[in-house]
Amino acid sequence: MGDATVEMTRLVSTTVHDLEAVVRLLAAGGIAAIPTETVYGLAADAANADAVALVYAAKGRPAFNPLIVHVADRAMGERYAGFSPLAERLAASFWPGPLTLVLPLAAQAPVCGLVTAGLTTIALRVPAHPAMQAVVRGLGRGVAAPSANASGRLSPTTAAHVLESLNGRVSMIVDGGPCSAGLESSIVAVDGDDLLLLRHGAIALEALEAAAGKPIAVAAEGAAISAPGMMLRHYAPNLPVRLFAQTASPMEFHIGFGEILGDRSLSRRGNLVEAAARLFETLHRAEASGKAGIAVAPIPETGLGMGINDRLRRAARR
User: Fold this and answer.
1) CA-CA distance, 249 to 253, in Å (whole number)?
2) Of 132, 161, 182, which residue is a domain's last?
3) Are residues 170 and 258 in the same domain?
4) Percent of the chain residues topping a pLDDT of 90
5) Total Cβ atoms within 10 A of residue 9
6) Residues 173 and 246 reside in one and the same domain
């Protein structure tokens, strides 16, 4: 799928000058890591098959795993997909923001087949982060951007995480500081009046259902892959992960929550928003701790806890 090696990886800022350089790179068929409010994305022009192939090659990502296309707004999104009234309602409620909608692919959509993995649907999101917004608007068309990490590994929430994983495989990394949400987008497939949650994420299921005005079914584990983040083992550190750990052995890095402090807590207050924002950064720290394993305190299976536990279960699967 192309050579993922580059001569040098450059760290750049979020100044107008640097972001214009990123736009020129993408327009010329290159790839760059760009922050969003969820995690850092590895970006390419979604219409350029060679550029998208570089993304797959840099990540070592299987070609059957589709990519999210980031668009500037609903109007741009309509060039790529058909919006039912229910899809319009969800978009109005959560865009820009951490919601990805899987929608019927529009005829003549300006996107290469690698992005959709040959499916008749496309995953769209309108990001809230000003850096990604500036790049999408500057390019004038959709930007395909999976998480900027080696496939299956921990998602990056800082530029340093990207550099550690993809140094020498991406031309530019835009350093926009830590991601505010720290958890990938929620993914909802909309087929007319039918809704299916394909991935728990940075928007709680209850909030999605409230906006939709109806219950949302949740895709079963092992369902056919129709969106990113559905592989059974994903978001994983290089250490074994043990869940529901009230205590930890001396050889385990203990990730705490609430009253269980551990070596580092996701949230001493038991706040799930804070825990989601700190999840991947804490897993990166645990992986670098020199311990033989990672033990994670119980996380409530409510609200954003459903997204946190989804990532942890995939990380723990061997």
Assistant:
1) 8
2) 182
3) no
4) 82
5) 17
6) no
Q: Tell me: the pLDDT tens digits for 55-97?
A: 989 988 666 678 999 999 999 999 999 999 999 999 999 999 9
Q: Does residue 17 share a domain with residue 142? A: yes
Instruction: Look at the chain and report how many structural domains it folds into.
Output: 2
Shared domain check, 245 and 172: no
- Measured CA to CA, the distance from residue 57 to residue 4 in angstroms comes to 5
> Which candidate, 83, 85, 89, 125, places its Cα nearest to that of 104?
83
Q: Which residues contact 35 (CB under 8 A, 6 or more apart)?
A: 14, 41, 129, 131, 132, 159, 174, 175, 176, 177, 179
Name the helix (H) or strand (E) containing 10. Answer: strand 10-12
Contact yes or no for 61/115 (Cβ under 8 A): no
CA angle 213, 72, 177 (to 5 degrees): 100
pLDDT of 1 > 50? The answer is no
Full residue range of the structural domain in which residue 283 is found: 241-316
Has residue 213 been placed in a domain?
Answer: no
Distances (CA, A) of 13 to 34, 131, 156: 10, 9, 17
**Position 196 in a domain:** no
Q: Per-residue pLDDT tens for 183-213?
A: 999 999 999 899 999 999 999 999 999 999 9
